[in-house]
Amino acid sequence: MKIENIIQKGVEAALAELYDFTPVANQIQIQNTRKDLDGDITIVVFPFLRVSKKSPEQTGEEIGIFIQQNVDVVNSFNVIKGFLNLEITKNYWIDSLLDAYTNENFGISSEGENPNTVMVEYSSPNTNKPLHLGHIRNNLLGFSISEILKANGNKVVKTNIVNDRGIHICKSMYAWQKWGNGKTPENSGIKGDHLVGEFYVEFDKHYKAEIAELVEKGLSKEDAENQAPSILAARELLLKWEAKDDETLNLWKTMNTWVYDGFEITYKKLGVDFDKIYYESETYLVGKKEVLRGLKKGIFYQKDDNSVWADLTNEKLDQKILLRSDGTSVYMTQDIGTAKMRFEDYSINEMIYVVGNEQNYHFQVLAVLLDKLGYKWGKDLYHFSYGMVELPSGKMKSREGKVVDADDLVEDMIKVARNVANELGKLESLSDSEAAETHRMIALGALKYFILKVDPKKNMLFNPEESIDFNGNTGPFIQYTYARIQSVLRKAAEKNISIHKNISVETISAKEKDLLKRVSLYPSIVNEAANNHSPAVIANYCFELVKEYNQFYHDHYIIGETDEEIRNLRLILSSTVASVIKKGMNLLGIEMPERM
RNA sequence: GCCUUGGUAGCUCAGUUGGAUAGAGCAACUGCCUUCUAAGCAGUAGGUCAUGGGUUCGAAUCCCGUCCAGGGUACCA
Length: 596
What we know:
The protein is of the alpha/beta class. The protein has helices at residues 3-19, 49-52, 56-70, 90-102, 133-151, 167-179, 185-188, 192-216, 221-227, 229-242, 246-270, 280-297, 331-345, 360-372, 406-424, 432-452, 475-494, 510-520, 522-531, 535-555, 564-587; strands spanning 30-32, 41-44, 74-80, 83-88, 117-121, 155-162, 276-279, 301-302, 308-311, 319-323, 350-356, 382-386, 389-391, 394-395, 460-461. The protein binds one RNA strand through strand 10, helix 14, strand 14, helix 15 and strand 15.
């Protein structure tokens, strides 16, 4: 049983016995004792003063005596101000270590008879440009939260909605037709998604110039934006596309294929994957049908220009457009269709959308719309709303080419990792391919950790010049510690030192105990990460664990220890720490090298 | 304007449902490699938790006001 639960029961018994008092939920506050004080577990006694009618010190003393006498695992106690600090027996901690050491699934809840099916949508790229740093955050969060939910016993379906149609791709298509000169990934040597992205930027350049020209001629900005030749041409392409015009469809297919080939490479590099991919081109008609059904039922209304709207003023939201006056569908239309299809395809208990916080409003509206359309799961959808990645110069803008490109970033990171490794003279014993593989792991470890250690809800700053480091609170620091432990375990094996599970030591040192305690926290951390939808919880835990291990490593001999029992304990401890690091970092999608 | 999120060390970030003296990393300075990986360990310095009130045994955390910043706000996604 977890130590918190044991103590909880003990305090309940104490309160009943001493003060004839039954506490309500959360009245018993159990926390870890501050490091600079004696004890392991601390109980806050302030909430009980009302029933004890005594001073904090006296109350703590009374409860402490009771618990010491009645709870086996409590060795001793002390009271400081209003805090009752309990010291837990050495044997309890050793048992908890053995549990972690022997249990391969330590920290993983087994799936129940009927595990919850959670669908996680993430990535969801538009097919008009390559992935950038913002997408990286999305992909890493989506992948990680999926892994975390799995570890908590859920059945997870990772999904991706590829926004492969719409005005954005028409812009790239038009630009390619007009200024492309038959350029292809093959004849230009440019990765497909990057090539299409170039035309998106090209479009915007011309579009902006046209607007400026029209404004010069005296048009209002709004009119100019709507009358520029480029945008008219792109809109015409969209209409042709929806009318299934052959030439348009062919170009669309060709350019999308270029993009998918490019995305696949990037996804692979990032180590993310999907169980089911939906394409907007296959879902938007379902959405359109739903909107028309809603219109018929009188849930939505039509304006004179034929556009279809939802009036959400009763829900304290706005009027929302669902179909444009020319009949084409918008972003919301396809999301309705996609949701419908997903719930038909899978028996989903929980739907999570990993989408940036700039779309908070969109998902509030989507939930209401689905609800209005009669889907009972509509208002239960969960928008995993994460913050933006900002550059020192501000927000990234694809159209202006002001982005940190995902592929470039990964390549740069690998280069830096290689340079650092060479400077330090590491990896010299490895073959070239092994070394390259390790550089890749370290580079991605640095990048992934950097992004995932931040609270997802918050905006974060990425400074290309100085953000990625390999020392301190970083992925490589954690990987380094893992590799270090592996090295120790290898050396132990070389010396034919075997590990046995009968730990018998007189005492354990303070550092050893700190480490043990940290290890035993892991399962509840995995739980917390799922409840808070936060990979950052795992990242921060791993950092704390590793920091403590390095202190332990610095202060204690392991193989060099002459007392065989102590040496055995330290080997078990080291091995367990390594395995917890690996498990935890795996939940973040970060691999651990054996040497570095 | 309205809605919404945030403001913690020079910089990047932690800080559990309100708890003890607010923590890390980077950058700066100082020590520690003839014994298991120095991508490490230890130390120094750095704070009016934006700001003013309130709630209470106790507030970075909860409530109200103000300032500043990000995001959203009806035919972009």
